[in-house]
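QA checklist item 7 of 12: single-chain prediction sanity check.
[x] sequence parsed
[x] length recorded as 477
[x] structure emitted
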Amino acid sequence: MNPTLFTRRQALVSGTRLAAASLLAASSFRSLVRAASTGSSARRVFDIRDYGAVGDGTTLDTAAIQRAIDEANAAGGGAQVLIRGGHRYLIGPIELKAGIEFHLADDAELLVGTDPQLFGTRAAVSANAAHGLRITGTGTINGRSPEFMDHFDAENEWWRPKAFRPRLVTLTGCKDLEIRDITLSQAPSWTLHLLGCEHTLVDGIKIRNQLDVPNCDGIDPDHCRDLEIKNCHIACGDDAIVVKTTRQGASYGPSSNIRVHDCVIETQDSGVKIGTETTHDISDVRFERCEIKTSCRGLCIQLRDEGNVSNVEFRDITFVARYYSDPWWGRGEAISFTAIPRTPTTKVGTMSDIRVVNVTGRAENSVRVCGSTQSRAHDIRLENVDVTLDRSTKYKGGLWDNRPTTAVAGLEEHGNPGYSIQHADKVTLKNCRLAWGQNRPDYFTHALEAEDVTGLEYPGFTGDAAHPERDKAIAVL
């Protein structure tokens, strides 16, 4: 037979074989791509669409996603749960498991359901002792905070939540944890709560919350150790990055060896913070190379409980701190480090070995380092700190904000010096500067004021009183 001539039947058979070969090649190529992304040819991909997820934004896809998670966990080998882009998946609470990659591809979006009966007390996304868990991708987990709000309180300038609102992501007791690149948006309450986690990396995530929703913290490392947070962009109403040791997680021990760097922050509360929950020790914490675009306090330590806070460094940070409405804690302080008992009977821990280096910002209230008669701060060093104080908002000034406490007044009327040091020992301000802006109310006072302080040194300090005709530049009381 002429090899260049085919019968119709031969052509059909040949075409079928070619098509099959093409499908096999395409399948092999997809497998190779998947393997290349993990460096392992053994890893399997569990596509939630294969488990019945619809992704139309109205059909509840919780069960389908959970089946994919459970089977990926059983398969092992770092199996990937794939949330494909181009879809919005409505979810109730889902529980991530150990040894999987939970991957939100492209523009995939998980929409949190708003029916309280779905949740109980669970977060929208949770994990418990899920060692080796990875959460990756460029998709979004959307907490739909507007739908958990009751009404806008115009007098206090914030939203009043309904009786129920879930936390967005809570990961408990996980080791070798990685969270990378995803977006977390519109959290109704805390956004990313890391409780008792160890050996954790949070890299390049974005948090996009409403700035006028209370308690929607950005990232809360709580009783965590060996943690790095970097390259994150955070916008949230409450504290942006805050290291804690809450009473609920006491069994997980102290928080230590935590590094936060190269983050951009916007908040109506504290930019980078330790506390207020300090029921166990917090130590070896470093915040560096962060930009705080707006906050009610730039840098903050609020020690209110029995734990000790030590060996903490803030370095190479720029900030803006201003007043917001009264319900928000913080009165525009540039820096606020306070050790004040939560109640009259609280045995508060100590705050020591705190360093602030190469920090620059504008604020409406003081740099404040304040121990207490029960717990004196000691070994505090500020070096190359450059602060400009100016009033720019309409809210009442001339206050210290001591909240939360019932041991002393929550809001205390007090003049605002540039730098205020109280109830402290061995404090150094090296090459620090204070400048005043154009708006200088009467309650702006000294450049530096020290009260009940021993071992105070301020080599290279520069700054005048806000009202030099009335006050001295430096007042040691």
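[x] summary fact logged: Confidence is low (pLDDT under 50) at residues 1-40.
[ ] second reviewer sign-off
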